């Protein structure tokens, strides 16, 4: 196994001298997502020439857009016989196609009437708005239009498989990646696709995890069940992880190589990691396995071993610095190694610096060696001696940002870096105003912040979605894990809303529990009385002032004021 992956190691050392991969070529180490070879590209049929394919979207008024969507919905639902859900989704999620329709009528015309007349004499190619509505880009739609077909009803097999995926729970807007990367899925005979989806559930995976798997790696639904994925699941089970553990870290924005992931697990065993140590690494930072499907482990472990570090030393470095595989930290580390080798520092000295100061090396960008050498009049020997005398001189002389090295190193490394480490995982850049502001906003230790983050992921939110929520409302993570769980429970119990309903309103988690409890209870009571709309947004219920809430959600029912006072009294007595 190790011999098979040796070609993945980018050695910084040669027999004739000390050289390292140039930082300009660092991007070559980035892990490219695999791409399916199943893309079907066909020419655009002449039938579609009547509808220009997606001109550049210009600004249209909100009224015109709404009228256009309604006209397109009426055409699809009433004239063409689409079911309500399909017609509504297509009409509301094909803005480029809608723009092309609106460009065919005069600005001073009544949009609804004009489009209704247009549809009467100019049937549209229904594949255009359909493919756009499932998430394909306009340029992708153009290349994937089927030959000699205009009406979706002419391809009932495609529609049947489309509905299988929708009814399984896959968001319609995410089906575009499946259509692009594994088009054959939409040609399966009746029952085949449903059988394949359920086959993955039989492995012990929940439906939500299966959805994340197939939206991130659509080719899992092609051919036989993916044996490499099965082996990865079996290995993770041996390590003590439940089958659905990976579901919390998969993202449909990425694709995954299960073969590479499996090789990573075997590779760690073969270079001396016990199952217990591997489990500890992945618990501390799942990115070791999921970012790049594990390839960064090959590269980074190989580099550290070639510097002369022992396997136990490498393991300790990973455990103490779980953010080392983040793209930013890895790039900084490569720049630092390049710097030290370029100025001619001996390998033993480099190894000692890496062992003692790897966190600083990964957290700070360094200037180029030529820039620093100007202060030494090009004398590499004198610069090397300066670094040997005190390795921290490297950061004093070469760091791109101003930092008080003495103050930083005098503090406990754990206290200093654990919160910073967490923020780096979220995508914050070190030594920036954004990072400084975030350090002040977030309360708690790094492990506590990670626990709260994991709580949201375990509740069913994609980790990338949670990161975006945190950046929009940072103080949401200042709630304890118990409070976050309670607020999610209130959302489900009183409103019956899924946890995804707070994605657009992350500030929900910042509101006082009593306020949430009181207002949700009142709204639930109003719905039972038939006095309120059934699906009001969370922000509508919480963001308004008490006076406004009383006006619109209490006084609208004769018994409302009494119920409101009763709720407040019961909460006061409970506290």
TrEMBL record:
One of its GO terms (biological process) is DNA-templated transcription termination. Pfam families: mTERF (PF02536). Gene3D superfamilies: Transcription termination factor 3, mitochondrial (1.25.70.10). Keywords: Transcription, Transcription regulation, Transcription termination, Transit peptide. The keyword Chaperone does not apply. InterPro entries: MTERF (IPR003690), MTERF_sf (IPR038538). GO terms for molecular function: nucleic acid binding. Belongs to the mTERF family. This is Transcription termination factor MTEF18, mitochondrial. It comes from Capsicum baccatum. The lineage of its organism: Eukaryota, Viridiplantae, Streptophyta, Embryophyta, Tracheophyta.
């Amino acid at each position: 196994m190790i011999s098979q992956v040796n070609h993945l190691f980018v050695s910084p050392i040669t027999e004739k001298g000390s050289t390292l991969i140039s930082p300009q070529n660092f991007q070559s180490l980035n892990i490219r997502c695999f791409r399916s070879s199943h893309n079907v590209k066909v020419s655009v049929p002449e039938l579609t020439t009547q509808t220009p394919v997606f001109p550049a979207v210009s600004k249209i008024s909100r009224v015109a857009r709404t009228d256009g969507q309604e006209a397109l919905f009426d055409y699809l639902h009433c004239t063409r016989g689409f079911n309500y859900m399909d017609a509504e989704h297509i009409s509301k999620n094909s803005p480029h196609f809608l723009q092309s329709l609106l460009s065919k009528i005069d600005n001073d015309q009544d949009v609804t009437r004009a489009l209704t007349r247009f549809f009467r004499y100019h049937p549209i190619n229904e594949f255009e708005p359909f493919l756009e509505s499932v998430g394909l880009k306009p340029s992708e739609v153009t290349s994937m239009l089927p030959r000699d077909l205009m009406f979706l009803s002419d391809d009932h097999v495609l529609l049947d498989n489309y509905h299988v995926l929708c009814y399984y729970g896959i968001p319609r807007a995410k089906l575009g990646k499946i259509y692009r990367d594994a088009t054959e899925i939409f040609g399966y005979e009746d029952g085949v696709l449903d059988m394949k989806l359920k086959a993955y559930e039989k492995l012990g995976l929940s439906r939500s995890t299966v959805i994340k798997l197939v939206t991130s790696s659509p080719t899992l639904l092609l051919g036989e069940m993916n044996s490499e994925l099965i082996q990865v699941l079996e290995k993770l089970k041996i390590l003590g992880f439940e089958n659905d553990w990976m579901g919390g870290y998969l993202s449909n924005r990425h694709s995954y190589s299960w073969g590479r992931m499996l090789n990573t697990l075997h590779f760690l065993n073969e270079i001396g990691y016990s199952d217990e140590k591997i489990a500890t690494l992945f618990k501390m930072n799942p990115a070791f396995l999921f970012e790049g499907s594990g390839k960064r482990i090959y590269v980074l472990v190989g580099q550290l071993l070639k510097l002369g570090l022992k396997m136990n030393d490498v393991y300790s470095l990973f455990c103490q610095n779980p953010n080392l595989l983040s793209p930013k930290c890895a790039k900084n580390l490569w720049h630092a190694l390049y710097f030290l080798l370029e100025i001619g520092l001996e390998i033993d000295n480099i190894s000692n610096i890496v062992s003692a100061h790897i966190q600083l090396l990964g957290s700070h960008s360094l200037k180029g060696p030529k820039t620093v050498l100007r202060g030494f009049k090009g004398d590499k020997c004198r610069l090397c001696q300066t670094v040997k005398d005190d390795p921290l001189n490297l950061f004093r002389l070469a760091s791109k940002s101003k930092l008080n090295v003495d103050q930083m190193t005098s503090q406990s490394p754990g206290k200093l870096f654990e919160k910073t480490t967490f923020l780096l995982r979220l995508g914050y850049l070190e030594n920036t105003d954004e990072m400084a502001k975030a350090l002040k906003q977030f309360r708690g230790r790094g492990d506590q912040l990670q626990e709260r983050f994991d709580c949201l992921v375990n509740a069913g939110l994609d980790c990338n979605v949670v990161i975006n929520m945190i950046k929009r409302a940072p103080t949401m993570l200042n709630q304890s894990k118990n409070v976050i769980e309670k607020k999610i429970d209130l959302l489900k119990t009183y409103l019956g809303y899924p946890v995804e309903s707070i994605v657009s309103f992350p500030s929900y988690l910042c509101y006082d529990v009593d306020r949430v409890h009181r207002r949700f209870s009142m709204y639930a009571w109003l719905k039972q009385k038939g006095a309120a709309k059934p699906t009001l947004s969370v922000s509508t219920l919480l963001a308004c002032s008490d006076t406004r809430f009383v006006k619109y959600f209490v006084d609208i029912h004769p018994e409302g004021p009494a119920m409101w006072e009763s709720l407040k009294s019961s909460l006061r007595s409970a506290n």
